[in-house]
Design brief:
Largest sheet: 6 strands, mixed
Structural class: alpha/beta
Number of strands: 6
Strand content: 5-15%
Order of helices and strands: EHEEHEHEEHHHHHHHH
C-alpha cells in the first residue's frame, strides 16, 4: 500500500477529516535522539492490515508537547481511523487484532514447554544419538530451570501470587522467595545428573507441597486464581498447568531417588 510520510510541522489538516476508509493517520515521534518503538509497531500493524498510512512525524520535542496539549492525549503515538481517534499502539492492537491483555492464555506455558522439549531433543540426538528415557528427564529438568527463571524475573510479583495458595508460603513467607531458587538449582543439578542426594529430595519437597496446595485451592476450595508457575503478572489460570509442573518434578525426583538407591 502507498503511504505518505512528512513532518507534522508541514501539515495543518485536521486528522479527523483525513482518516477515512483504509487510510489511517499516524502521529509518532522521530526525534534526533529517539525513534518511538511503539510508533514503528503501530505503522507496521496498520500496513499489515491493509491500511494506507499517512505517517506524520514529530521532529522536535516542542511539537510533541503541543500535539498532546491540543488533542488532550497523554502520549504518542496516536492513530485516527475513519475520522475517529483510536489511541496509541495498545488501543490499535486491540481494535485490529482483538487482543485482550486481560484474557486467559496458556501461550507462555506452551512456548516454555516447547523450548524445553526442543532442547531435550537436541541434547538427546546430539549426545546420545537417539531418544531415550533421558530425553524425558532432560525435558523435565529444563522445564524446571525455565519455569524458575520466569519466577525470578519478577520475584515480588511471583511471591504475591504464590502466597494466594501455597500452604507453606502462607505459614512462612520467606519460603515464597526460596522456592524459585530451589526449583532452578534442582533443575540444573538434575540436568547434569549430579548431586542427586541434594537435588532430588529438594525437588520432591517443593513439588509435593506445591501439588497439595494447588489441588486444595482449585479442586477442593474451588478458588479461581492465576497461576504463579510462569512468574507474576501472568494470565495463566491456576490448575492443570501448575499441578502438572509439580507432578513432573515429583516423578523426576522419585525416579532419581530410586535409581540412586538401586
Amino acid at each position: 500500500m502507498p503511504e505518505t510520510t512528512h513532518n507534522v510541522a508541514d501539515v495543518t489538516t485536521d486528522p479527523a477529516t483525513t482518516a477515512t476508509g483504509k487510510t489511517a493517520v499516524l502521529y509518532r515521534m522521530a526525534l534526533p535522539d529517539h525513534l518511538c518503538p511503539a510508533g514503528q509497531k503501530a505503522r507496521w500493524l496498520l500496513k499489515s492490515k491493509g491500511f494506507e498510512v499517512d505517517d506524520r512525524l514529530f521532529r522536535e520535542r516542542a511539537e510533541v508537547d503541543a500535539f498532546k496539549a491540543a488533542h488532550d492525549v497523554p502520549t504518542t503515538p496516536q492513530v485516527w481511523i475513519d475520522g475517529t481517534r483510536v489511541g496509541g499502539y495498545d488501543a490499535l492492537r486491540q481494535k485490529l487484532t482483538g487482543y485482550d491483555p486481560d484474557a486467559t492464555t496458556y501461550r507462555p506455558v506452551i512456548y516454555l514447554f516447547a523450548v524445553a522439549a526442543a532442547t531435550a531433543l537436541a541434547l538427546s540426538i546430539g549426545f546420545l544419538g537417539a531418544l531415550t528415557w533421558q530425553t524425558l528427564g532432560w525435558f523435565i529438568s529444563l522445564s524446571m530451570i525455565l519455569l524458575g527463571m520466569q519466577k525470578l524475573r519478577d520475584i515480588e510479583s511471583f511471591t504475591t501470587m504464590f502466597l494466594n495458595y501455597d500452604l507453606l508460603a502462607r505459614k512462612w513467607v520467606p519460603y515464597a522467595y526460596v522456592y524459585p531458587w530451589v526449583e532452578v538449582g534442582a533443575g540444573v543439578l538434575m540436568t547434569g545428573m549430579i548431586l542427586t542426594p541434594l537435588s532430588a529430595p529438594a525437588a520432591l519437597f517443593i513439588s509435593t507441597i506445591g501439588a497439595i496446595s494447588v489441588f486444595k485451592a482449585v479442586y477442593i476450595d474451588k478458588r479461581e486464581l492465576k497461576c504463579a508457575c510462569v512468574g507474576g503478572g501472568s494470565n495463566v489460570p491456576l490448575g492443570f498447568v501448575s499441578l502438572t509442573e509439580n507432578l513432573m518434578m515429583m516423578g523426576m525426583a522419585i525416579v532419581m531417588l530410586l535409581h540412586l538407591a538401586g
